[in-house]
## 1
Amino acid sequence: MTKHTIVVYQAYKNSGNLRFHKKGTKKSWKHYFIEIDDYDEDEYTFGSEWISSIKAMILKRKQVYKKRFVCPECLKIWEAYVPKNTKEIECPNCD
Ligand SMILES: [Zn+2]
C-alpha cells in the first residue's frame, strides 16, 4: 500500500466540535490520505492520522490533488490524484 497525502491541516485534538474546544488546547496537525494498493490501483482506502509539525511540512510538499483529465485521443474524461504541477498523465483507456 502506498500513502498519498490529500490534505494536511491543523485541528484541535481534544474536541470533535471545533467551536467548543478546551481553553489552552494546542492545535495539532492532521493528515488525511488515501492508501492505494500497489497491485490494483482501483483499490484504495481513505485514512487519517495525527502527525508532528515537521512531518506536516514534508507531507505538504508531496500533497496530491484530485484533478480531471481529458484524453485528446479518445476524449475519455477521468479523475486521478496527482502532484500539484501535473499537467498530463497517461490515458487509462489508450494505454
Ligand atoms: Zn485516451
## 2
Amino acid sequence: MLNEESAIELTRFIHKTYLIRGRFKKDDMKAEDIELVKKSWKLIEQMDKVAVGGIFYRKLFQLAPEVKPLFVNISIEEQATKLVTMLTYIIENVDQLHVIITDVKRLAQRHVHYGVKPAHYLSVGEALLWTLNNAFGKYWNDDFQSAWAAVYEELAAAMITAAEEDVALQ
Ligand code: HEM
C-alpha cells in the first residue's frame, strides 16, 4: 500500500508532468519519438560526457537545490559518466522496456535508498531536456522536445512505479 505522503507526491508529479507535457504533445511515445530520441542520443554520446553532465547537474541543482546533498558521496564527473552510460543502455532498449525492466526496477529501487523522491523525476526530466536543448543549440526544435518528453515520461513512470513497490514492501 502507498502511504499518503507518497501518494500525494505521485499525484502531484503526474499532474505536473501532464501539464508540462500538454504544452508539447498529447499522445504517447510513438515509433518516430523513439527513433528521434535514439538518433539524437547517439550525437550526445559523441560529446564530452563530463562537460554535458556538468551542464545537466548545474541545471538540476538550480531547479531543485534540495537534491544537491544527495550527491555528496560522489564526484559530478563520476556521476555524469554513470548517468550517461545507464541512459545509453536504457535508450537502446526503450522500445522494449519489458526486456530491461528488471534492471530499471533495480535502478529505481537503489534510488529510493539514495533518498530520491517521485517529485525529483520531474526536475531531472526538466534538467535533461534543458541540457539536450543546450547541446543541440539551434538544431533543437519542438519535435525533439516532444519526443524526449514522451520517452522520459515513460522511463520516469516505470522507475516511479518500481520505487513505490519498493517502498510498499518495506
Ligand atoms: C532517468 C532516470 C535516472 C537514471 C537513468 C539514473 C541513473 C543513475 C545511475 C546509473 C546511478 C549510479 C548508481 C546506480 O546505478 O545505482 C545513479 C545514482 C544516483 N542518482 Fe540517478 N538516475 C535517474 C534519476 C535520478 C533522480 C530523479 C534523482 C534525484 C535527484 C537521482 C539521483 C541520484 C543519486 C543521489 C545517486 C547516487 C549518487 C552516489 O553514488 O552517491 N537520479 N543514477
